[in-house]
C-alpha cells in the first residue's frame, strides 16, 4: 500500500492509500477527513474540488496523490483560520452562497486568482467553476471589490 | 481513524430543549390550539428560551440554499420581539405523528415552507412573547399589560423601571399555560419582516464546515458506490463475483414506493460496491461488468420513439372514461368553456397553430445523491440524508428495517441542491439495503454519471396550441393540448377526469380573454422515470402559452406587451407585467444588436413577469439582461427572494439553452457536465428583480405565494420571444443548442 506525506494547510499528513493514482480529492475527504473540498463531476469540469497547490488553483478530482505529495496544498479549511480571507469576507457580506456546495471550490479559484495578482473583473473572467444554484450575480459583485 | 467532525451544525437528533429552567413552546398544525409543552416531550420542544437568554428554534424544513428556515426564524422574531441574530437554528427531525408538530421535519417541496408557515410562525412568536409578559406580570404583581413594553427580549415595566429578560422569566413562563392567540405586530411597525437579514448558514458555507450528506463521517464507516443497470427497467441476471479491491458487493432492488415508470418494484436494478474509501469502491465498480436482463419493451425506450408517440397521440388519444382503466395514451379534459372551442376555431376569421416540444431534463444537483446509515440489527438505525422528504424517509427507514420510529435517529443534513430530486427516496432505500447486509456504518454515493443517468427527469412534452382570431384581432377560441408522461401516474396516483395536475398546471385558468377555451392533457406512455423538477409543469406550459401569445401578437402586428395587457383581466398579472416592462424600458429601443422579449405566468400562488434581453452570438443567443417582477403577496427576506429568483433564472438559462436528456435502448445518453453545458461566471447576465410592494396590512385569508421555483417558468418564453424579435426565427423546440458541451 503506497504511502505519501501530504502537506495540507501547513500540516503534514502521512497517508496510506490503495494506489498512487488515487485522486487528491478522495485522499483529502476520505483519508484525511477534510470534507470541505467537494466532489462534483470527477472530470475536471465543474471545479467543486478546487484546491491550491503551490499557490495555484488545481482541480483535485483527477490529480494523483503521488503528484501532490510534498507540495504545499491549501484547502478551504485552510484558506484562513477565521473566515478572514477577503473573499470569504465578501462572500458573507454579500450573502453569496445558496446551497453552498460549489462555494469551497469557487472560493479557492478566486483565492488563486488573487494570489496571481488579479482583481475584480479579471477574476470574474478567469473563474470557470460551475454553480448550479446560479449565485453568479452576487459572486460578480463580491469579486468586484477584490 | 478520523474523528467524527464536531457537530458544529448539530443537525441533531431530537433535542430535549425543555429540561430544567427553559421555557419551551410547541405549536401544532392549523386547527389545533397551541399547547404548552410538558417538560420533556422530545418532538414538541420547538421554541426554547433558556435561563441564559439563549433562544433556540428547531425548524424541520430542509436547507438546500433557499434560506427558508432562516426566513421562518425572521418571522418568529418579529412578534417575539427579538433580533434575528440571537436565534440559534436547529434542524428538526421527522416524526410519524400526524399532524406533525411544528419544528419537526416537513417535506420541503412546492416552494412551500414560507407560505405555509408564515402566520403560524408569527402567531407562535406573539404567543411566546405574551406568555413571558404574563410571567413578568406575576413576578412584579402588576397585571396591567399596558405597563409593559418589550424590546429585543427584555420586558420593561414602565412604572417601576424594572427590566426582566426573557431568560430571567423562562422558568416562570414554563409553568404558565400560553394564551391561544396573541396580538401581532402591526405591519407598519415591522422591524424585520420585509427587510434583508443575514442567513446563519452562510458563514459555514465559506469555510468548508457546513456538513452536507456527502460529508458525513461515522467512526468505522465504509463507502459504497452505486452501479445501476444502464437501461431503465433492467434486472440483475446473475450476481457477479466481488471485484478486486472491493470489500463487498450488495445487490439492491427497487423498493416499494420508490419505483417509477420502468423501474418496477422488486427488480434488482443496481449493485452497491463497497470499499475502504469512495475511490476504492468506485474503481472496483468500474471493473465490474454485470449482466442485466432487459424486458422486451426496453428497445422502445428511445428519444425518437418518444417523439413519434407524442405526435401520434396528439391526434389519436382515447378520451378519458370515468371508471375505466384509462391507460397511458388517454386524453383528459382540463378545462372546457361553455362555448365550444372547436366550433370557435372553425368559425374564426384567422386560425393560428403551433407545436412546442420540450425534452427530458435532469436535475443535476451540485451534490450527487448519497445517504449514510448506521444500522444495528434489530436495535437501532441512525441515518444521515440530504433529503427534502425527511418525514417520508423516516417511514421508509421503518419499513425497510422493521424498527419502530423511536429506534431511528434521523439527521437531515445540508443539501447541496435539491431541485425536487432529493424529494425522492430511491437513494435512501439503497443505502438502507446495503446497511442491512453490512451491519456497519456505510455511506452510499452515486457517481455523477449515475446521478445523470438515473434521474427522475422533468418530463418531455409536446404541446399543440390553436388560436382562433376574430375580425378585430381578439382571440375568440383557444385550444391547448399537452402530451407528456405523468409524474403522478408513475407514483400510482389515480388520475381523475382532468388528468395529472403536475402536467397541466399553468396551462389552465389563465386570466387571458381567450373566448371559447379547451385545455387538454394526454398521458404519454414513456416509462422513463419522471419527477418534480423546479417549477414542474409550469416550466413546460408557460413556455408554450407565452410563446403562442407572442406568435399571435406577431401575426397581428401588435406589440407583445400591449397585446397581453389588453387581454389580461387579473390586476396582479397586469401589475407585474407593467413593472417588468417599465423597468426594462420596454417602450424604448434596446441597445443595437439586441432585442427584448416578455412573458408572464404563475405558479404556487405567485405571479411573475420577465423581460429578457438577448444578443446574437454567432447564431446562438447570449442573454444580456433580465428583469423579473415578482408578486408573492408577502415578502419575508427580500435578499432571499432576490437570490432565489436570480438563481431560478440561471437554472432556466441552462435548461432553455442546453438542458436535455436523451435515451437509447432505455439508457440515458448525457452522463456528466461536459455534455450538459451550464453557464459560467463570465456569462452571467445582469438580472434585476422587482418585488411588488407589500400590502399596507396583510390579510391572512389571502394565499401567500412561493418563491423558490418562480424564476424558472417565464424565462424560456421570454427568451424565445426576444430571439424571434432579434432574428425572426421562432424557436419552438427546446433546448436552443442541444449540442453544446463544456470541455472536460
UniProtKB/TrEMBL annotation, chain A:
MF (Gene Ontology): 2 iron, 2 sulfur cluster binding; metal ion binding; oxidoreductase activity
InterPro entries, per the entry: 2Fe-2S-bd, 2Fe-2S-bd_dom_sf, 2Fe-2S_ferredoxin-like_sf, 2Fe-2S_ferredoxin-type, Beta-grasp_dom_sf, Diverse_Oxidoreductases
Keywords annotated in UniProt: 2Fe-2S, Iron, Iron-sulfur, Metal-binding
Annotated Pfam families: Fer2, Fer2_2
Keyword Magnesium: no
Chain ranges of the 2Fe-2S ferredoxin-type domain: 2-79
Source organism, top-level taxon: Bacteria
SUPFAM superfamilies: 2Fe-2S ferredoxin-like, CO dehydrogenase ISP C-domain like
Listed PANTHER family: BLR6218 PROTEIN, OXIDOREDUCTASE WITH IRON-SULFUR SUBUNIT
Record-given protein name: (2Fe-2S)-binding protein
Natural source organism: Paucibacter sediminis
Amino acid at each position: 500500500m503506497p504511502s505519501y506525506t501530504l502537506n495540507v494547510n501547513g500540516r503534514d499528513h502521512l497517508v496510506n492509500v490503495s494506489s498512487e493514482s488515487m485522486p487528491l480529492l478522495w485522499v483529502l475527504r476520505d483519508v484525511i477527513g477534510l470534507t470541505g473540498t467537494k466532489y462534483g463531476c470527477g472530470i475536471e469540469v465543474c471545479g467543486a474540488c478546487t484546491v491550491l497547490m503551490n499557490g495555484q488553483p488545481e482541480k483535485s478530482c483527477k490529480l494523483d496523490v503521488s503528484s501532490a505529495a510534498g507540495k504545499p496544498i491549501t484547502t478551504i479549511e485552510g484558506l484562513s483560520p477565521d473566515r478572514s480571507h477577503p473573499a470569504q469576507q465578501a462572500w458573507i457580506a454579500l450573502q453569496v452562497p445558496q446551497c453552498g456546495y460549489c462555494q469551497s471550490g469557487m472560493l479557492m479559484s478566486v483565492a488563486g486568482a488573487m494570489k496571481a495578482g488579479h482583481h475584480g473583473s479579471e477574476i470574474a473572467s478567469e473563474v470557470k467553476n460551475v454553480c448550479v444554484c446560479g449565485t453568479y450575480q452576487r459572486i460578480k459583485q463580491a469579486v468586484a471589490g477584490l | 481513524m478520523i474523528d467524527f467532525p464536531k457537530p458544529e451544525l448539530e443537525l441533531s437528533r431530537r433535542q430535549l430543549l425543555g429540561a430544567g429552567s427553559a421555557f419551551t413552546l410547541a405549536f401544532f398544525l392549523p386547527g389545533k390550539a397551541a399547547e404548552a409543552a410538558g417538560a420533556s416531550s422530545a418532538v414538541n420542544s420547538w421554541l426554547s428560551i433558556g435561563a441564559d437568554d439563549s433562544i433556540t428554534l428547531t425548524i424541520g424544513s430542509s436547507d438546500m440554499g433557499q434560506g427558508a428556515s432562516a426566513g421562518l426564524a425572521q418571522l418568529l422574531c418579529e412578534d417575539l420581539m427579538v433580533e434575528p441574530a440571537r436565534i440559534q437554528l436547529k434542524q428538526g427531525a421527522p416524526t410519524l405523528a400526524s399532524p406533525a408538530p411544528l419544528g419537526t421535519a416537513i417535506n420541503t417541496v412546492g416552494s412551500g415552507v414560507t407560505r405555509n408557515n408564515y402566520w403560524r410562525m408569527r402567531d407562535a412568536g406573539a404567543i411566546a412573547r405574551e406568555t413571558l409578559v404574563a410571567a413578568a406580570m406575576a413576578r412584579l404583581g402588576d397585571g396591567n399589560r399596558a405597563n409593559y413594553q418589550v424590546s429585543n427580549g427584555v420586558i420593561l415595566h414602565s412604572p417601576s423601571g424594572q427590566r426582566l429578560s426573557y431568560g430571567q422569566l423562562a422558568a416562570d413562563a414554563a409553568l404558565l399555560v400560553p394564551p391561544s392567540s396573541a396580538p401581532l405586530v402591526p405591519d407598519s411597525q415591522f422591524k424585520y419582516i420585509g427587510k434583508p437579514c443575514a442567513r446563519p448558514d452562510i458563514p459555514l458555507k465559506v469555510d468548508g464546515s457546513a456538513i452536507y450528506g456527502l460529508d458525513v463521517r461515522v467512526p468505522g464507516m465504509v463507502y459504497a458506490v452505486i452501479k445501476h443497470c444502464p437501461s431503465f427497467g433492467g434486472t440483475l441476471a446473475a450476481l457477479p463475483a466481488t471485484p478486486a479491491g472491493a470489500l463487498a458487493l450488495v445487490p439492491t432492488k427497487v423498493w416499494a414506493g420508490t419505483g417509477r415508470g420502468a423501474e418496477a418494484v422488486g427488480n434488482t436494478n443496481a449493485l452497491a460496491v463497497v470499499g475502504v474509501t469512495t475511490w476504492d469502491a468506485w474503481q472496483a465498480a468500474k471493473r465490474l461488468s454485470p449482466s442485466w436482463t432487459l424486458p422486451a419493451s426496453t428497445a422502445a425506450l428511445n428519444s425518437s420513439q418518444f417523439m413519434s408517440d407524442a405526435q401520434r397521440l396528439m391526434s389519436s388519444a382515447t378520451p378519458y372514461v370515468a371508471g375505466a382503466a384509462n391507460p397511458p395514451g388517454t386524453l383528459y379534459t382540463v378545462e372546457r368553456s361553455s362555448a365550444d372551442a372547436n366550433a370557435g376555431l372553425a368559425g374564426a376569421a384567422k386560425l393560428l397553430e403551433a407545436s412546442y416540444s420540450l425534452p427530458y431534463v435532469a436535475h443535476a444537483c451540485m451534490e450527487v445523491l448519497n445517504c449514510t446509515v448506521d444500522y444495528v440489527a434489530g436495535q437501532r438505525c441512525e441515518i444521515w440524508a440530504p433529503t427534502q422528504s425527511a418525514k417520508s424517509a423516516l417511514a421508509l427507514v421503518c419499513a425497510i428495517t422493521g424498527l419502530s420510529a423511536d429506534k431511528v435517529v434521523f439527521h437531515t443534513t445540508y443539501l447541496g441542491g435539491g431541485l425536487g430530486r432529493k424529494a425522492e427516496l430511491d437513494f435512501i432505500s439503497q443505502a438502507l439495503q446495503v446497511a442491512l447486509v453490512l451491519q456497519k456504518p456505510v455511506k452510499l454515493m452515486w457517481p455523477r454519471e449515475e446521478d445523470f443517468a438515473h434521474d427522475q427527469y422533468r418530463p418531455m412534452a409536446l404541446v399543440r396550441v390553436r388560436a382562433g382570431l376574430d375580425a378585430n384581432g381578439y382571440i375568440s377560441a383557444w385550444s391547448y393540448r399537452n402530451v407528456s408522461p405523468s409524474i403522478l401516474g408513475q407514483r400510482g396516483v389515480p388520475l381523475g377526469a382532468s388528468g395529472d395536475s403536475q402536467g397541466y398546471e399553468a396551462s389552465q385558468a389563465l386570466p387571458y380573454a381567450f373566448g371559447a377555451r379547451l385545455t387538454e392533457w394526454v398521458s404519454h406512455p414513456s416509462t422513463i422515470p419522471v419527477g418534480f423538477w423546479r417549477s414542474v409543469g409550469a416550466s413546460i406550459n408557460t413556455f408554450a402559452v407565452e410563446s403562442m401569445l407572442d406568435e399571435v401578437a406577431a401575426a397581428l402586428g401588435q406589440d407583445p406587451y400591449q397585446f397581453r395587457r389588453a387581454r389580461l383581466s387579473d390586476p396582479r398579472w397586469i401589475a407585474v407585467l407593467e413593472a417588468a416592462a417599465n423597468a426594462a424600458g420596454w417602450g424604448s429601443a434596446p441597445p443595437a444588436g439586441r432585442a427584448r422579449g416578455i412573458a408572464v405566468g404563475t405558479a404556487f400562488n405567485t405571479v411573475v413577469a420577465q423581460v429578457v434581453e438577448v444578443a446574437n452570438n454567432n447564431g446562438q443567443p447570449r442573454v444580456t439582461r433580465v428583469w423579473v417582477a415578482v408578486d408573492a403577496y408577502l415578502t419575508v427576506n427580500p435578499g432571499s427572494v432576490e437570490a432565489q429568483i436570480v438563481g431560478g433564472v440561471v437554472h432556466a438559462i441552462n435548461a432553455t439553452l442546453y438542458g436535455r436528456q436523451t435515451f437509447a435502448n432505455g439508457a440515458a445518453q448525457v452522463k456528466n457536465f461536459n455534455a450538459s453545458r451550464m453557464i459560467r461566471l463570465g456569462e452571467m447576465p445582469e438580472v434585476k428583480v422587482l418585488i411588488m410592494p407589500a400590502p399596507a396590512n396583510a390579510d391572512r385569508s389571502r394565499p401567500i405565494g412561493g418563491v423558490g421555483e418562480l424564476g424558472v417558468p417565464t424565462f424560456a418564453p421570454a427568451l424565445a420571444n426576444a430571439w424571434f424579435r432579434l432574428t425572426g426565427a421562432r424557436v419552438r423546440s427546446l433546448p436552443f443548442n442541444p449540442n453544446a458541451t463544456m470541455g472536460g
